[in-house]
Specification:
The chain has helices spanning 3-11, 24-32, 44-47, 59-73, 92-105, 119-127, 143-146, 155-171, 183-192, 213-216, 237-249; strands at 16-20, 37-40, 78-82, 109-111, 132-137, 175-179, 197-200, 208-211. The protein is an alpha/beta fold and 260 residues long. The chain has a single domain (3-258), classed as Alpha-Beta Barrel (TIM Barrel), CATH 3.20.20. It has an eight-stranded parallel β-barrel with strand order 1-2-3-4-5-6-7-8, surrounded by eight helices. The longest helix is centred in the middle third of the chain and has 17 residues, at 155-171. Bound molecules: 3-methyl-2-oxobutanoic acid.
Length: 260
């Protein structure tokens, strides 16, 4: 699936349903059960590799998992590949070389973390045919600075986040993940921008939602407060995924208990 097909869904006011995905079997199952976007997230450092953070994930590993997901999806879902820590922050040229590897592996878009500091790289990638998804709010690759704490709670930080979002859009980013921020801030960003916002712990007003697959499957030992175990009450994985898809498309997830 390519970007124009996805954007047509947003124009019809359909919520975009996103799940992280790390292998071919799940890619096939998720694509068959209505998930629009498979995010090959560097969260695989935690969910697959067992690290405490995403920082140890390498570009080679992201390429390997992106190839597996692309084979499984067989063109039936849009694929976003995460640029891992250390593979893009140095320069736009470094970001281009890493992003090109992910596109060659089967990603349709790359995601990178950060606001104003990433604007030059976003512009550089977009001008060279690489669709970019930004990521603001809680940035797991900056855990050593911020910890895993929700962001943009004070009004000055919220204002900075909104400015970052506008900067990323102006630089050509075509999607924006908002992680762990107050619902009112995510709502304001979503109203300000023309590009779709994808929330995770960011309330119900974004244009789409993303969950970490392992959280949805109830496999996470200490899931974040905003996550939901969709295996509860489901008779198999496909049924749980369909439940998630229906809840997001129907506007029931995330509810107030999954927002702040
Ligand atoms: O790596 C990941 O899974 C992510 C999501 C938390 C958005 O970036």
């Amino acid at each position: 699936m390519f970007l124009p097909q996805l954007m047509a869904r947003v124009e019809k006011d359909e919520k975009l349903v996103v799940l992280t995905c790390y292998d071919a079997s799940f890619a096939r199952l998720l694509a068959d059960n209505g998930v629009d976007i498979l995010l090959v997230g560097d969260s695989l450092g935690m969910t697959v590799q067992g690290h405490d953070t995403t920082l140890a994930v390498t570009l080679e590993q992201m390429v390997y998992h992106t190839e597996a997901v692309a084979r499984g999806a067989g063109g039936r879902a849009f694929i976003i590949g995460d640029l891992p820590f250390g593979a893009y922050q140095q320069s736009p040229q470094q970001a281009f070389a890493a992003a090109a590897r992910l596109l060659a592996a089967g990603a349709n878009m790359v995601k990178l973390e950060g606001g104003a500091v990433m604007v030059e790289s976003v512009r550089f990638l977009v001008a060279r045919g690489i669709p970019v998804c930004g990521h603001l709010g809680l940035l797991p690759q900056s855990v050593n600075t911020t910890g895993y704490r929700s962001q943009a709670r004070e009004s000055s930080a919220a204002t900075r986040l909104i400015e970052d979002a506008e900067d990323l859009e102006n630089a050509g980013a075509q999607m924006l993940v908002l992680e762990s921020i107050p619902a009112v801030v995510a709502e304001e960003v979503t109203q300000h921008l023309a590009i779709p916002t994808i929330g995770i712990g960011a309330g119900p007003h974004c244009n789409g939602q993303v969950l970490v697959l392992n959280d949805l499957l109830g496999l996470t030992e200490k899931p974040p407060r905003f996550a939901k175990d969709f295996m509860e009450g489901s008779w198999n994985i496909a049924n749980a995924v369909r439940g998630y898809v229906a809840s997001v498309k129907g506007g029931e997830f995330p509810g107030p208990e999954h927002s702040f």
